[in-house]
Amino acid sequence: MSEKHLQTGDELPAYGGKMRLFAMRFCPYAERSVLVLNAKNLQYDLVYINLDQKPEWIFNFSPKGTVPALEYGQGKAIFDSNIIIVYLDEKYPDVPLQSTDPLRRAEDKMLVEKFAGAQSAYYTAAFNAPALRPDMVETYHKGLEMLQKEIENRGTKYIHGNEPGLVDYTIWPFLERFLALPLLGKNEFAIEKTKYEVLTNYIEAMKNVPAVKSYCLAPETHAKYIESRAKGNPDYNMLDTSAVCCMRPRKKKE
């Protein structure tokens, strides 16, 4: 599949009969949906979108032209990563990714919400460095410490349990990108093993989860994209096959 991002004037590819995810290759929110589709072994097509020069037809699937958007039937779509991943988990329950315990599901949602401060600090560090303040770095590390403590308290390999779940696939895309910050000279954002041993072990475990391994990008690749975007000219089509951890596994079922 081509990594080309379609833009203004490009035609909408013909519908192939499978679910279709409209995404941007470097978007962490779109990645959440990809990971859940992969984890559930679902058949789907990916259509990448240039978010600076959006094709006109993307607004038929996402009113604000944002990604991800999931076309679940020809011309029928839902948008927003949190809506999409919960829909997929409920629609295709054979590989359940949420706890059956309502309290644990609530705790997972609160964990994601509490981690949002670290995500916000990442965006400032990556794309608006002049606005970065010391308290943002502090917020970032508080988020990491909170996440590490939660993993310790749960006593499981993944946040969800002995297998990764929706909460892991929701948080992972940001952890993947956090690893690029030291390569951009932001050493204060490094996730040092001496301080974050449990968290770094978790990161290494997540890298080897098949659903993640088939889509994740190396920190060097994220750093290259971040640099291009920070300069005002995001290089959406920079990837070749060597940049991907491994090829996406063949999907097994509708």
UniProtKB/TrEMBL annotation:
Keywords: Oxidoreductase. One of its GO terms (biological process) is glutathione metabolic process. The keyword Oxidoreductase applies. PROSITE patterns: GST_CTER, GST_NTER. The lineage of its organism: Eukaryota, Metazoa, Ecdysozoa, Arthropoda, Hexapoda. This is Uncharacterized protein. One of its GO terms (molecular function) is glutathione dehydrogenase (ascorbate) activity. Belongs to the GST superfamily. Omega family. Residues 101-226 form the GST C-terminal domain. It comes from the Eukaryota. Residues 17-96 form the GST N-terminal domain. GO terms for cellular component: cytoplasm.
